[in-house]
Amino acid sequence: MTEPVNRDRAETGRVEAFSDGVFAIAITLLVLELHGPVLKVTDRDAHVGLWSGLLDEWPQFAAYLTSFAIIGIMWVNHHSMFSAIVRIDRPLLFLNLLLLLWTSLLPFPTSLVAEYLKDGDTNAAAAEAIYAANLTLAAIAFSLIWMRAVRGGRLTAVRLEPRAEWAAVGRFSVGTFVYAATIGIAFVSAIAALVVQFLLASYYAFEQVTS
Asked: Which range (6-15, 16-25, 105-114, 181-190) has the least confidence?
């Protein structure tokens, strides 16, 4: 029995290592979208202009911190999830790729939010809605991975009771509905939508794989 167990663990390790690489690249790309302000002041007043210019660039810092928190906590929960998963099947591999698709795409809508958030117009709403849609799709993929593991594929080390299975899936799925709601909130207040998304990341910081 030792050889199959070791082979299964090697397979889960490969998936986790590949995923770690994608998470690391995505979180690194976020910082590349940070740019200093373009100063239009004399050299004598440059120190004053820089501080005010940096404050004026608050949307890009807010977008960066939110996306960093989301990707970072996704990585933490992905690690916890794959600590419980002991076997891999083909559907799970594709679901994990789906999660990585939306994760690797996140720097793009982050840059849109950073550029248009302070405008407070339809462009800000559109940028935040695109960002929220990306997060919603990532949350769906995350939930599907766990659902496949505990229900469809029975890929975890310990089988849960049906009630515990649904409770575990439900905890991972809360974010899906909240992220989807922020698509609508974005058209009311793009800033409020971003705040909700940051707070939801805080919720997942305390999330557990099993009860």
From this structure: 6-15
β-bridge mates for residue 85, sequence order: 156
Within 13 Å and on the Cβ side, how many CA atoms surround 156? 20
Q: Is residue 139 part of a domain?
A: yes
Angle at 98 between CA 61 and CA 19, to 5 degrees: 70
Question: What's the CA gap between 99 and 144, in Å, rounded?
Answer: 9
- Has residue 41 been placed in a domain? no
Whether 47 is in a domain gets the answer no
**How many H-runs (helices) and E-runs (strands) does the chain carry?**
8, 0
DSSP 8-state symbol, 159? P
Number of domains in the chain: 1
Tokens of 27: 């979180």
Q: What's the angle, vertex CA 99, arms to CA 93 and CA 65, rounded to 5?
A: 150
Q: What does the pLDDT read at residue 10? A: 66
pLDDT in tens, 55-85: 777 888 999 999 999 999 999 999 988 888 8
Does pTM surpass 0.90? no
Give, in order, the Cα–Cα distances in Å from 190 to each of 36, 43, 112, 166, 182: 23, 36, 12, 33, 9
- Do the Cβ atoms of 163 and 181 come closer than 8 Å? no
